[in-house]
Design a protein that fits this description.
The chain is 40% helix and 23% strand. By secondary structure, it is α/β, with parallel strands linked by helices. The strands form 7 sheets. It has a 7-stranded mixed β-sheet, with helices on both faces. The structure holds nicotinamide-adenine-dinucleotide (NAD). Nicotinamide-adenine-dinucleotide is lined by residues 147-151, 156, 174, 176-177, 207-208, 211-212, 215, 226-228, 231, 234-235, 249-252, 283, 385, 387, 413, 453, 458.
């Protein structure tokens, strides 16, 4: 049985209490490795190591910090196959997805911030008439906490630690206890890349222990969190009276709006992807599909037929399009929402149940891609986050109506709009209460753009220089000449 270790002060070490948590392979339901069940003591060690490393790291020229991050990016690329296999095994996602999306993007994150920090400069201006000059210095904060979820494990982990480190902070990071393996492998890569001891520390374990201890730690003034809205709320409750700086990337219930004048094939094929990629476990998946009435039946019938042809199965098989859900508990949650949809009057057009996969994956946690119609726009199924391979279809008649439907949840992360009418594309986009809109595409990411949600989908934005601003403290100096 493989042991995962904490990465503290440049070393791979066991948790102080010597306890471990089972790590499951979701495709087989088997325990295949052990995760440190860390606690306050481990967090304390990590914070102390980060504090000790901070003065030297903060003084390290940005170019040198950048070079180390780019070395880490190179090593992620060199280890692509190994990391992708580990991600697929740990999360249940198709290996191909990990090879083409998760791991390349993790490497891009490191490279992007390794270079961005070299272009990140602060402002200065002369005050006319008073002979004074103002300049703003952006100091790193010190020790920052980064907490990440299980759906895109290495991708979202690096999306936080890369800018935090680039800006000169030292980091105590907590990956999800559901998918810790690639963060563990990253600690080995950081050692090989020559990242100085204590600059990045990775403490594994439960959120209510490690995550809570990190959030409450008085020497960690900044928390960057991606995960569920309920967890974000708990973190905010602890952090607010301590006046911590917070970035919260939370849940979503994203609308996918399809007008009758869309490019049909593009809308159809992309919607399959935006509904079911990563088993629907991407915060940006479009789980509510609104279709303009003249196109409704044509779209529905083609969509159902294509989705029925998707191969659900062994994530390691290259023909697999839909792998396993991340855990048994999560699968039960998704199945319970399908039951709720039935109670709320929904009709299951396809899917709707757990799937038994033959062979080595017979005990895995697979759910058939599920399409539901006949629900009202504001029922629970259509307003609560399911985070699985489940989408609903609803017809609409007017722009005003679909905007009302789209905005009716407490979430506001992203939306997709399909139309060939330029004016309508802009008009509708501006009225959607979401942080990210895609028009005639989905998940086309440009790391320079601000990323994040409105309403209960989050606070703050990641991406580009936004994150470097978040991870630095501006200080203005006014000099009278
Ligand atoms: P989660 O909130 O259960 O866990 C996220 C992380 O927080 C994990 O590392 C967990 O251990 C930790 N945690 C749990 N309780 C904690 C506490 N009390 N204090 C501190 N940390 C704690 O989320 P999840 O189930 O891992 O991920 C799925 C959720 O993440 C979905 O809601 C999804 O929409 C959201 N998500 C959002 C984005 C985004 O960019 N907005 C991206 C990916 C996932």
């Amino acid at each position: 049985m493989e042991y995962i270790h904490n990465y503290i002060n440049g070393q791979l070490i066991a948790p102080a209490a010597g306890q471990y948590i089972h790590n499951y392979n979701p495709a087989t339901g088997e325990v295949y490795s052990l995760i440190p069940d860390s606690g306050e003591q481990d967090v304390e060690l990590a914070v102390q190591a980060a504090q000790a490393a901070f003065p030297a790291w903060a003084k390290t020229p940005a170019e040198k910090r950048g070079r180390i991050l780019m070395k880490i990016a190179d090593l992620i690329e060199e280890n692509l196959d190994r990391l992708a296999e580990a991600e697929s095994l740990d999360n249940g996602k198709p290996l191909k997805l990990a090879q083409t999306v998760d791991i390349p993007r993790a490497s891009s994150n490191m490279r992007f911030y390794g270079t961005a920090i070299q272009h990140f400069a602060s402002e200065a201006h002369y005050m006319e008439g008073t002979d004074a000059i103002n300049y703003t210095v952006r100091h790193p904060h010190g020790v920052v906490g980064c907490i990440s979820p299980w759906n895109l494990p290495l991708y979202l982990f690096t999306w936080k630690i890369a800018p935090a480190l680039a800006a000169g902070n030292c980091v105590v990071a907590k990956p999800s206890e559901v998918t810790p393996m690639t963060a563990f492998l990253l600690s080995e890569i950081c050692m090989e890349a020559g990242l100085p001891a204590g600059v990045l520390n990775i403490v594994h374990g439960y959120g209510h222990k490690v995550g809570a201890a990190l959030t409450a730690h008085p020497k960690v003034p900044v928390i960057s969190f991606t995960g569920g809205t309920a967890t974000g709320k708990a973190i905010a409750a602890t952090a607010a009276p301590m006046f911590k700086k917070l970035s919260l990337e939370l849940g979503g219930k994203n609308p996918n709006i399809i007008f009758a004048d869309c490019d049909f094939n593009n809308a159809l094929y992309t919607s399959i992807h935006s509904s079911f990629a990563n088993q629907g476990q991407i915060c940006l998946c479009g789980s509510r599909i609104f279709i303009e009435r003249p196109l409704y039946e044509k779209f529905r019938d083609a969509f159902v037929a294509k989705v029925q042809a998707l191969t659900v199965g062994d994530p390691l098989d290259e023909n697999t399009k839909i792998g396993a859900l991340v855990s048994e508990q999560h699968m039960q949650k998704v199945l319970s929402y399908i039951e709720l949809a039935k109670q709320e009057g929904g009709t299951i057009l396809t899917g709707g149940e757990q799937i038994k996969v033959e062979g080595r994956c017979e005990n895995g946690w697979f759910v058939a891609p599920t399409i539901i119609e006949g629900l009202t726009y504001n029922c629970r199924t259509n307003t609560e986050e399911i985070f699985g391979p489940v989408v609903t279809l609803m017809p609409f008649d007017t722009e005003e109506e679909v905007i009302l439907y789209a905005n009716c949840t407490d979430y506001g992360l992203s939306a997709t709009v399909w139309t060939q009418n330029l004016q309508r594309a802009h008009r509708v986009s501006h009225q959607l209460h979401v942080g990210v809109v895609w028009v005639n595409t989905w998940l086309l990411r440009d790391l320079r753009t601000p990323f994040g949600g409105m309403k209960n989908s989050g606070v703050g934005r990641e991406g580009g220089f936004e994150t470097l601003r978040f991870f630095t403290e501006p200080q203005n100096v006014c000099v009278k000449l």
